[in-house]
From TrEMBL:
<keyword id="KW-0460">Magnesium</keyword>
<keyword id="KW-0235">DNA replication</keyword>
<dbReference type="InterPro" id="IPR043502">
    <property type="entry name" value="DNA/RNA_pol_sf"/>
</dbReference>
<dbReference type="GO" id="GO:0000287">
    <property type="term" value="F:magnesium ion binding"/>
</dbReference>
<dbReference type="InterPro" id="IPR050116">
    <property type="entry name" value="DNA_polymerase-Y"/>
</dbReference>
<dbReference type="Pfam" id="PF11799">
    <property type="entry name" value="IMS_C"/>
</dbReference>
<feature type="active site">
    <location>
        <position position="148"/>
    </location>
</feature>
<dbReference type="GO" id="GO:0006261">
    <property type="term" value="P:DNA-templated DNA replication"/>
</dbReference>
<keyword id="KW-0808">Transferase</keyword>
<dbReference type="Pfam" id="PF00817">
    <property type="entry name" value="IMS"/>
</dbReference>
<protein>
    <recommendedName>
        <fullName>DNA polymerase IV</fullName>
        <ecNumber>2.7.7.7</ecNumber>
    </recommendedName>
</protein>
<keyword id="KW-0238">DNA-binding</keyword>
<dbReference type="GO" id="GO:0005829">
    <property type="term" value="C:cytosol"/>
</dbReference>
<dbReference type="GO" id="GO:0042276">
    <property type="term" value="P:error-prone translesion synthesis"/>
</dbReference>
<keyword id="KW-0239">DNA-directed DNA polymerase</keyword>
<comment type="subunit">
    <text>Monomer.</text>
</comment>
<feature type="site" description="Substrate discrimination">
    <location>
        <position position="59"/>
    </location>
</feature>
Length: 442
């Protein structure tokens, strides 16, 4: 069927139905074959090939798939009353729940919500299934997170017998049928606008932003639509009287760079829809980290150190499983008034050992335990490399070699008998703090 369709489908005056994929040759508001109102028409519909795919409310969608009783209920994925919202289904979002919102505020907005602790192992498994289906479309898949990715579908029409727009529509159908969740897709000529397009009309969205309309479309949008313009920078722009992208379009590149440095150049280019970045399938991880939000605020070293040790071991385990090491240790703290503190220290050599990550983290933490109460603690490593030069013998700290050998023996026991088969004195007998709930994994 698809091969037959491809002979005439590239006519830009012809749209298609997203439900049955039938070509639409007239101006009807509903599909001439199945009656669906979900029609796609656009002057550049068959000329664009850069796509962004985003799973709709991913964690919540997976939980609803696995428990049909949750289908019509508001669902929040997050950790406890003191945690944050990882994601929320669209019913909960209608009631004001948003990702990264403190859980107590989410429950104030939607007290009838069903709260489910994240099951990262399950989500990773489903995310890999979706990514595998993406890679069947094109080898140029650039993952952005567990549930979204860029795709470059240029040159795949001969393989699929369909232009990229129809390939995306068929892909969305397949994910919904085979995996049981929904996705939204954006199609454009560059990554920036493909990502913007995928955010429209969620869930089950499919939007297009063509090159001919880009500048006009962007002119009416707020500056926060541009990557890198967060709340703080948006406030800076607003103090300068800049609220819309159209205002940036009327400014000179040199003036923007004098005011805002390298960010000024980004503003100039993206405000005009200029984005030459390619879809890079071998996108390397930038960091490996673990963090947890506490049920009650903590201030003392006695409370924080066991958690730091447990998180360091989690980071170390991921590094070892991935065959990578990191040179910079990064400590993250969030105060009770939601202010974030990050501290980092570069090591002489890359590491993947929990002991080195923990010892460095303790040195960073010591300067922050000044009576301040914290609601979140995280530890991670960045500047990732291979393991070839990781953790060489330390001629000054002669005990480091013994600690490394002991850690290897502990890893072997845990692999055989489970994660809690052997513990250090830092975590043994510390209850929940010895195995903190994780809010974020990178």
């Amino acid at each position: 069927m698809f091969a037959v369709m491809s002979t005439s489908v590239n006519d830009p005056s012809h749209g298609f139905c997203r439900d049955c994929l039938a070509v639409q040759r007239g101006p009807a508001m509903r599909c001439t074959k199945c009656g669906s109102p979900r029609l796609m028409r656009h002057p550049e519909l068959y000329a664009l090939h850069i796509a962004h795919i985003d799973c709709d409310a991913f964690y919540a969608a997976v939980e609803k798939r696995d428990n049909p009783e949750l289908k019509d209920k508001p669902v929040i994925i997050g950790g406890g009353k003191r945690g944050v919202v990882s994601t929320a289904c669209y019913i909960a979002r209608i009631n004001g729940v948003r990702s990264a919102m403190p859980m107590f505020k989410a429950l104030e907005a939607c007290p009838q919500a069903v709260v489910i602790s994240p099951n990262m192992e399950k989500y990773v498994r489903v995310g890999r299934e979706v990514r595998s289906m993406m890679q069947a479309l094109t080898p140029l898949v650039e993952p952005i997170s567990i549930d979204e990715a860029f795709l470059d579908l240029a040159g795949t029409e001969r393989l699929h017998g369909l232009p990229p727009a129809l390939v995306l529509a068929r892909f969305a159908q397949s994910v919904e049928k085979e995996i049981g969740i929904t996705v939204s897709a954006g199609l454009s000529y560059c990554k920036f606008l493909a990502k913007v397009a995928s955010d429209f009309r969620k869930p089950r969205g499919f939007s297009i932003i063509g090159e001919a309309e880009a500048v006009t479309f962007l002119a009416e949008q707020p500056v926060t639509l541009i990557w890198g313009v967060g709340k703080a920078f948006a406030a800076t722009l607003e103090s300068d009287g800049i609220r819309t992208i159209g205002q940036i379009q009327r400014m000179e590149r040199g003036d923007l760079m004098r005011r805002y440095g390298t960010m000024g150049d980004r503003l100039y280019r993206l405000s005009r829809g200029q984005d030459t970045r390619r879809v890079e399938p071998d996108h390397d991880a930038k960091s490996v980290s673990a963090e947890t939000t506490f049920d009650t605020d903590l201030a003392s070293s006695a409370d924080l150190v066991p958690i730091l040790r447990a998180l360091s071991e989690k980071v170390s385990t991921r590094l070892k499983k991935s065959g990578i090491a990191g040179r910079t240790v990064v400590l993250k703290l969030k105060t009770q008034d939601f202010k974030i503190r990050t501290r980092n220290r570069q090591l002489g050599d890359p590491t993947q050992l929990a002991d080195r990550i923990f010892q460095t983290g303790m040195q960073l933490l010591a300067k922050e335990t000044d009576g301040t109460k914290y609601r979140l603690l995280g530890i991670g490593v960045s500047d990732l490399t291979g393991v070839e030069k990781a953790d060489p013998p330390d001629l000054i700290d002669v005990q480091s070699r013994k600690r490394a050998l002991a850690e290897g023996a502990m890893d072997a026991l845990r692999d055989k008998f489970g994660k809690t088969a052997v513990e250090t004195g830092y975590t043994f007998g510390k209850g929940r703090n010895a195995h903190p709930r994780e809010d974020v994994e990178d």
